[in-house]
Amino acid sequence: MDHSYRAALSGNGDGQGPRRVPRSGFAAPFPAAEVEPLPAREDANPRIFAFVDDLFFATKIQETARKLNVKVEFAKNDKDLAERMSQNGEEKPSLIIFDLNNANARPLTLIPRLKSKLKKGTSIIGFLSHVQGDLKQKAHEVGCDMVLPRSAFSQNLPQLLRRHGAPEDEAPPAAVQ
Fold it and tell me: Over the chain, what HEC string results?
């Protein structure tokens, strides 16, 4: 019996292990863009609040915020958010992040109340599983400014935190039309 096919499958002919043949359609992922951290400020109030109870994403947000010198506060419900916002004085949050699958926060009822209370100065971003098209539509209808799949949220998290974590005087200039 001819076993030459085994040599072809198990290595590059020298018996040193399997050959790595690139599969078509499976390119190497793009490296994550490095984002410049903000200058460290101990006296700064948190400008970003998050309703995230998923341990994986909460840790990811905390670690990214730490690397960028941005303060992010996590809230459990609307009363907790109101208490934390009152500690900021008159300064309103720049960004509120919602895990749209967080049943404790009741995002579809809380987002419209926050939108009416905070007006245009605060962006509300929600993230969900990419297969939840109905929930995405409902979140847009109740006032969520941006709804992202979990993967896109993770990929864009450093840019989002940097943009919204910067104090007003250090915020990037708006595009002029």
Answer: CCCHHHHHHHCCCCCCCCCCCCCCCCCCCCCCCCCCCCCCCCCCCCCEEEECCCHHHHHHHHHHHHHHCCCEEECCCHHHHHHHHHCCCCCCCCEEEEECCCCCCCHHHHHHHHHHHHHHHCEEEEEECCCCHHHHHHHHHHCCCEEEEHHHHHHHHHHHHHHHHCCHHHCCCCCCC
pTM: 0.72
Domain spans of the chain?
44-166
What angle is formed at CA 117 by the lines to CA 114 and CA 118, rounded to 5 degrees? Answer: 80
Give CATH for domain 44-166. Answer: 3.40.50.2300
pLDDT digits (tens, 9 = 90+) for 93-144: 999 999 999 988 899 999 999 999 887 889 999 999 999 989 999 999 999 9
Residue 113: which residues within 8 A CB-CB, separation 6 or more?
78
Token pair belonging to 14: 């020298």
